[in-house]
Amino acid sequence: MNSEQPVSQSPLISVIIPAYNAEAFIERTLKSVLSQTYKNLEVLVVDDGSQDRTAEIVQSIGGQDKRVILLQQLNSGVAAARNLGIEKSQGEFIAPIDADDIWYPQNIEKQVQCFLDSDPSVGLVYSWSVDIDEDDAPMGEFRASSIEGDVYKTLICHNFLGNSSASIIRRACLEKIGGYSCQLKEQDAQGCEDWELYLRIAEYYQFRVVSEFLIGYRKIQSSMSRDYSKMAKSHNLILQVVRQNHPEIPGALYRLSKSSFYMYLARQSSQCGTPGITLFWLKAALQADWITPLWRYGLYTLSIKSFWELMGSSVLSPLGFNHFSVMRLNAGSSSNRRFSTITDFNQRQLSLRFKLLVGNLLHCSLLMI
């Protein structure tokens, strides 16, 4: 789609932004949305009972750009906030983004064009994302997949979309399957609401991908310091429902799903500097599926790094380990590399092709089950 196409001829996109105490980044998030090359947008920010300047900042920006609409509710959780935004929106497509993430300028344009080039069986289009720091600079970690089509079984094993800011959803999908689940919050199990919605969409609709890094997914200490036990509980509750609905799917897929998710929690815990919790989740990954983690490089690097942090260099030095040797073990991890811009990241990313190959092999094998 030509970005110069008249707005009147372009489908309306409803951008939904749940925001709770988001004053630190909400202005940058809105700026990235309003700077999209695709212009036919309405932007609904749902203030979920914030106690900071979130509403004030949104109102100020809305005074300059009438596409921005502020909605407010008592603190009810991210799922309820997203649902309120969807309910009040009018667009043909729904584009969620969290209040601290950013979109690069062509994200919406390219996702909409992917929809327009597809038939109605496609319900969701997603883009690739990179982790960014507090200054919007790429940190090295990324989420990229070329998986599309019938993705249900693959999505059970792994949320390859990566986050809740990476997709555009056809409104008709949500009218058919419903919105985000508020039941997880009611069970004190928040954290996987986006994955749960993606799974319900994948039961009925095809997925398509825009194979470009167009999402900046914010990773800072405060956003990573969360209750991972609630996320694990959320993941397990969703798997229980899926397994009840699809007893024909082999149990190995559910074990793989748990193991993969626990490995993800281990990585997050390591980045937060909590080695004891990292080892806890590594053990949980092995207990869920003892075979698959053994093939993962991260199992060994995270284990050694965590043991070193717990025991101290005075204990590990006689064994040949010190701070620098542990850091070298992690040198292959993209999380230790910093990039100044998204262009720099794209030019220097060497592990992408391998990750796409592995993902495609997994997806193809699952389609044959």
Write the layout of secondary structure elements.
Blueprint: E1 13-19, H1 26-34, E2 41-48, H2 54-64, E3 68-73, H3 78-88, E4 93-96, E5 102-103, H4 107-116, E6 122-132, E7 138-143, H5 152-157, E8 167-170, H6 171-177, H7 183-186, H8 193-202, E9 206-218, H9 221-224, H10 228-245, H11 251-271, H12 275-288, H13 297-311, H14 313-316, H15 323-329, H16 342-348, H17 352-367
Parallel strand pairs: 1-2, 1-4, 2-3, 6-9
Antiparallel strand pairs: 4-8, 5-9, 6-7, 6-8
Helix pairs in contact: 10-11, 11-12, 11-13, 12-13, 13-15
What is the N-to-C order of secondary-structure elements (H for helix, E for strand)? EHEHEHEEHEEHEHHHEHHHHHHHHH
**Main beta-sheet strand count, sense and barrel state:** 9 strands, mixed
CATH class of the largest domain: Alpha Beta
Indicate the CATH architecture of the largest domain: Alpha-Beta Complex
| Terminus-to-terminus distance | 37 Å
Low-confidence stretches: 313-317, 319-336
Quickly count the domains: 2
CATH topology of the largest domain, what is it called? Spore Coat Polysaccharide Biosynthesis Protein SpsA, Chain A
The CATH superfamily of the largest domain bears the name Spore Coat Polysaccharide Biosynthesis Protein SpsA, Chain A
Shape: globular
Q: In which range does the helix fraction lie? A: 40-55%
Q: Features of this protein?
A:
alpha/beta, 17% strand, 17 helices, 9 strands, 369 residues, 2 domains, Spore Coat Polysaccharide Biosynthesis Protein SpsA, Chain A, nine-stranded mixed β-sheet
